[in-house]
Structures are given as C-alpha cells and as structure tokens.
Amino acid sequence: SNQPVYRATTTAPVNIAVIKYWGKRDTTLNLPTNSSLSVTLSQRSLRTLTTASCSPSYPAEDTLNLNGKPQEIQSSKRTLACLSNLRALRKSLEDADSSLPKLSTFHLRIVSENNFPTAAGLASSAAGFAALVRAVADLYQLPQSPQELSRIARQGSGSACRSLMGGYVAWRSGELADGSDSLAEEVAPASHWPEMRALVLVVSAEKKDVPSTEGMQTTVATSELFAQRVSSVVPERMTAIEDAIRVRDFPKFAEITMRDSNTFHATCLDSWPPIFYMNDVSRAAVRLVHDINRAVGRTVAAYTYDAGPNSVIYYEEKDSELVAGTVKAILGTNITGWDGPFYEPLANLTAP
Ligand code: PMV
Question: For the whole model, what pTM was predicted?
Fold first, then answer.
C-alpha cells in the first residue's frame, strides 16, 4: 500500500546540574522539592539522537528502540505520560484545522541512540527524554515553546526539562499541585560565558547502584539534613549562583557548585540506609581539584557529581592546561581503579 510515513529527527544535549535536583514532592508528575540549575553541555561529545515517525501503516502500538534494543514502553509510565501529553497537543491542532493529517491517531516509532554509556550517571535520561519530546513535538509540528515542552519532558525524567534549552538553565520548582508552574527557564545563553568548559571523567561506566527515583525517596523520607537543604541552603545558593553567572564570577560559581555537590552527597550519606554514589576515584578527583586550586592560589576548577561516581570538572578555557592537563596527567596514570576514558574538554556552548 502507499501509506505515508511522517518523520522528524533531532538531537538533545546532556546537562549537568550545579545546584542539584534531589527529592520529589510528587512522584507521578515529577515535581521537585527544590529548584535546580544546570549547564547544558556541547553536543559534540555527549548527546542523544532520536528519530520519531508515525504512519497509518504502523501496527499495534507505539514502540521505542534505545541503542538498538526494543524497550518496554507500555510499562514505563513516564514515557507513556510524555507521549499522551504530546498526542493531546497534536489532537487539539487537528481539531482546530481539519485539513491536517490525523497524526495523533497513528502509532509512533521512536528510535534513539546515545553516543555515551547509558545510566552511568552521565545524565542519559535527561538527554533521552528531551530528545524524545523534541522529536515528537517536531513530528507533530507543535507550536509550543521549549519552556512549555519542558513541562512534558519533566514527566519523563525531572532533569530532562533542563535539556530543552542551551546555556545556563534553571528548573523552577513551582508551587502548584498540578505542576503547571514547574518549568525550565534559560538564565543565560551559552554565548554569555564563552570561556566555560567541562571535562567529563568516566570513573566507571557501570550502571549506578541506586536509581535516582529510589534514592530520592529514601533521602526525602529519612535524611535529617535534607529539610534544611530544601528550606534554606538551596534557595540561597540559587540566588547566589545566578548572580555569579550574570557577572561571570568563576571562583564564586565554582565554590557554590562544589559545595552543592557535597551537600547533595551528604544527604545521601545521611539517608537510612545510607546511599553511596562517589567512590575512591571520585574522592581522589575531589582532592586533586582542591590541590590544583590551592597550588594556583585561585579557584580555577570545580567538580560536581550526580547519582554515580563520574566527575564533571568545570573550568575556564584560559586555565585549560592547568586544569585539564593536570587532571589527565595525574588521574590518568596514578589512580588505580580508573576506568577512563576522558571526554575531551567540552565547550558548553551549543544551543540544542
Ligand atoms: O532526572 P533524574 O530523575 O534522573 O534525577 C537526576 C538527579 C541528579 O542528576 C543527581 C541531579 C540533577 O539535578 O540532575
């Protein structure tokens, strides 16, 4: 038969939080206990590539293939929520204009590929859900802004809402119970701070110990440090880091970034039973960054860690040799348990 196939392809970048999202106040809608802020990385080294297609000839049900493997999307409430939100938006376009093909009635085929290890604490779910939402929104020719689409991506994976924009992106926690004000917002475009670089150290490419959703639930329910993090520590840091970004104050940006990573991991250690994401190699990288900063006499590097042992080190281009050079020379050869590779320094500076 001569059935049409409609198709759209897109890529989405990884983002690495400098103020961490950790804790849900609503697990169905993925509403966070606190606001967070991230830097969107360049797509040259880390990105998800996704093609979405639909056709009246596609049988049975929507399908998703990730890195060559079919995924069970019917049991993934998160994926289903994203797709049903996107379909509803397409349906309202079709209801308003009867000349449009009825794409909302066709089954979807989504094919997605990461160029980096999945689920190793490299924010693969962020890039993955951002690319899925962007690809289907493009396929459906939806007029919604990236900010409006962030509300949908958030339901796939919280951190995904920050990967629909480039540069420095805040996810405002919002207050409403329906999540309509829990959205990503660009604080500054990547071009605002062209010197900014990130080095990703893949300490281990293994799957992480405790999945983020489960870890968050344990921390929210059991950590005594957590309440203080949410009520005062994070709100103060959000304001301070946005100020630092505005005036490109690297030492201030760096100190807040390192302290927030440490506070996040402290609430994990304070959870019951305790959760460990960093390992000996991660801690060696922390010491090394402090040693470099002390030796240079100013803050030239900042580490941060997500729900896994891998380090991301932020620095400015002018300090590239000092930071990236030293980290590679020392960690690459002198640390046992090192599982490499280094991703080359990334300019953080490509809009998605
Ligand atoms: O988006 P999730 O549910 O995988 O949570 C990510 C949580 C952290 O990566 C640890 C922090 C963050 O803000 O990205």
Answer: 0.93
